[in-house]
Specification:
The protein is mainly α and 413 residues long. It has helices at residues 2-7, 9-35, 40-68, 70-90, 94-122, 125-148, 159-170, 172-176, 193-199, 201-229, 233-257, 262-283, 289-303, 306-317, 323-352, 356-376, 390-396.
């Protein structure tokens, strides 16, 4: 694996720069929107626009790659994605922000397709799980670092938007100049959501629920932290704590699911996230700031791994030639949830105050817990010796690289 990592070092360096800028925007935009007195519902809709653009980018990005190739697409998408934060910083208009976040989501989906298909093309089956684990670790780490860059300048001013733009545009330098061969053009994949629910209702439902709660976290948790603590800087620390919690618990929960019924791990994580949400709702406003950050980390540790374990669960029951198609469909379900979740959560938050975010999160996780427990009594688990390793499933469950333009109708599973 060391030789493979050497080949993709320039690409991973570009990823680190790119996602640092993305992490900064994830905290900066809802915080600045709150300072501009956008309503909570408006902020939720702006967050949903990003995930709507991301979902469409996943579905349509393959057309661009087949037309002009990976390097040109990467250069074009970084240019567009780096221009968006500059415009955001210049004009505080909700409609304009929604459009720009849609464009940003589309660009990042296509960028992930380029990055991950490049990584896939440079790795063998034996090293893919390890390489992608490094990739995911880098992703979570630098996004946390980007969120902390909020502390550099006042979010009311233009500087942080300029920093985000510089980071995104600079990411193209090591990627475009990389000596690694460009990967082959992506294959066509048709997504069949009905087939997903036939393969694993628990896995498909968990991915949708994870999209609703995780999308809500990214869209409006910065507003929650600011309103609860009264301190703008707390938004950066709070979101960072959630991401760090998710990074720490990703592998332990995944490896635990290799040794027992994955539905038990999913239901335990869903219940844990619901309990943490209830604690935040009941006591969050009265807790010291450090305790609130620790609760945010614990919530992230329970909620963020749901998607990866759900992908592993579904792939256990899929045919060997269905893994890419299955993972593509699960990502689409996650994206749909991430579009719906921020809107619903912002409505609850507008009615109940900042704790409404975790009323929504707790309700979704509790419903998921009940559904998973009901499903466990209807179907026996896949024997451990017949399962795919969590690392193998994780290598299939990438952010966007397995979702491409639909093929001909006779390709339907």
């Amino acid at each position: 694996m060391k030789h493979t990592l050497t080949k993709v070092a320039a690409l991973l360096f570009g990823v680190a720069i790119l996602l640092t800028g993305q992490g900064l925007q994830g905290t900066l935009i809802p915080t600045r929107a709150g300072l501009e007195n956008f309503s909570t519902v408006t902020i939720g809709i702006i967050g949903a626009c990003y995930f709507l653009g991301f979902t469409i980018g996943c579905l349509r990005g393959g057309v661009l790659l087949r037309s002009v190739g990976h390097v040109r697409v990467f250069a074009a998408m970084t240019a567009a994605a780096s221009a968006a934060p500059l415009v955001l910083g210049l004009w505080a208009d909700p409609l304009l922000w929604g459009v720009l976040r849609f464009i940003t989501g589309f660009c990042f989906a296509v960028l992930f397709i380029v990055i991950e298909s490049w990584l896939n093309g440079c790795t063998s089956n034996e090293s893919r799980g390890g390489v992608f684990s490094v990739y995911i670790f880098i992703t979570l780490t630098v996004m946390a670092l980007g969120q902390l860059m909020m502390l550099m300048y006042d979010p009311r001013d233009l500087e942080l938007f300029v920093v985000a733009s510089i980071l995104v545009s600079s990411a193209s330098i090591p990627v475009v100049l990389s000596r690694s061969e460009a990967p082959e053009k992506p294959k066509e994949v048709r997504i069949d959501l009905r087939r997903l629910f036939r393969i694993s209702p628990s896995g498909a439902t968990s991915c949708f629920a994870a999209g609703m709660t995780n999308g809500s976290f990214w869209a409006i948790s910065a507003i929650f932290a600011t309103q609860i603590t009264g301190d703008i800087d707390s938004a950066a620390w709070y979101m960072t704590s959630g991401v760090i919690g998710g990074a720490i618990c990703q592998w332990p929960l995944g490896l635990l699911s290799d040794r027992m019924d994955r539905r038990r791990v999913l239901s335990a994580a869903a219940l844990g996230a619901a309990v943490v949400s209830a604690v935040i709702v009941l006591f969050g406003a009265r807790l010291p700031e450090l305790s609130l950050m620790l609760l945010g980390a614990l919530w992230g540790g329970m909620s963020f791994p749901l998607y990866s374990v759900a992908v592993a669960l579904t792939n256990d029951r899929a045919e060997s030639d269905e893994n890419v198609r299955v993972s593509s469909g699960l990502l689409l379900l996650f994206g749909i949830g991430a579009v719906i979740g921020p809107v619903l959560a912002s409505v609850v938050m507008g009615a109940m105050g900042p704790q409404g975010l975790y009323v929504f999160s707790g309700a979704v996780h509790l419903l998921l817990f009940g559904y998973l427990n009901q499903r466990k009594s209807n179907r026996s688990p896949v024997p451990i010796e017949q399962r795919k390793d969590f690392s193998t499933a994780l290598a299939c469950a990438q952010t966007a690289s397995t979702v491409y333009e639909s093929g001909p109708k006779d390709d339907v599973a």
